[in-house]
Amino acid sequence: MGISKMRQRLGYGAADMASNLIWPMICTYLTVYYTDALLLDTAAVSIITLASKFIDAITDVLMGIIVDKTKFKSGKCRPYFLIGAIPLALFAVLTFSLPSMVSNNKVLMITMAFITFNMVSTCYTVVNTPLSAILPSLSSDPGERNVLVTFRMVMAAIGSFCVTFFALPLINHFGGKTDLYSYAWAAGIFSIGAVILLVFSYFNTREVVKPIKEEKIKLKDGLKAINGQYILFVITMFIYLLGFAIKQAGVF
């Protein structure tokens, strides 16, 4: 059954709005939670952040492969909005709460922080990788695709604005920056909104354009096609992301 263009536009944008109710919370307040509430030193925070970047690089590739091989009746991409909704919300809350439950044991606390951060990052990948890949399947009309991208950008910005505007008042309301569970309460509220938006997105998008069957390329042929400029690009991006991770870990 088809759906209206407006419903699909709102549905597509809702998925990124959901992601931006959770990920900016992680990026902005997780380090504050680690240092101000858990009282972790910057060295431990840096290790958690840097090590997680390597895991994230692996999960991004794996999720891309999984999406490419997906053959659900409802599509290749949109089922993951539904599959990833609850795990993403759950681990967003656990990231800000599970380490607090073992705050009397520093080693266990760091371990829980590392595990929960990587789990929420992986769940974000489960939702966001299909979101990035779904656009060509939503419409074959270039003009409509531009409109879809516009809706996605605007609604993502609204999600980020909600976190920017409401997160700190919520944290302060539930106990302040040094409280062990105030961040979890705030994350929980945003997570409920994210789940609703992802479910809405699933039911209001349709993958109507079938992907063109591509010829399989052997690994050795693919490696031969990689030239020096591409390798330089990969190295440059790795250095950039490494520097960004160090910067984020040292902000607080």
Report what the structure shows.
- This protein is mainly alpha-helical and about 250 residues long.
- It has helices at about 5-35, 40-70, 80-95, 100, 105-135, 135-140, 140-175, 180-205, 220-225, 230-250.
- Helix 3 (about 80-95) packs antiparallel against helix 5 (about 105-135) and helix 3 (about 80-95) runs antiparallel to helix 8.
- The radius of gyration is 20 Å and the shape is globular.
- The termini are far apart.
- About 35% of the residues are buried.
At a glance:
The chain has 252 residues and is mostly helical. The chain has helices at 5-37, 42-69, 79-95, 98-101, 106-133, 135-138, 142-173, 182-203, 219-225, 228-250.
Quantity of strands, as a count: 0
Tell me the structural class. mainly alpha
- Helical content, roughly? over 70%
> Could you say which overall geometry the principal axes of the C-alpha atoms support?
globular
Report the average pLDDT across residues. Answer: 87
Rounded to an integer in angstroms, the radius of gyration calculated over CA atoms is 20 Å
What is the helix/strand order?
HHHHHHHHHH
How many H/I helices? 10
- Distance N to C terminus: 51 Å
> Low-confidence parts, pLDDT < 50 over ≥5 residues?
none
What is the beta-strand fraction?
A: under 5%
Largest sheet: none
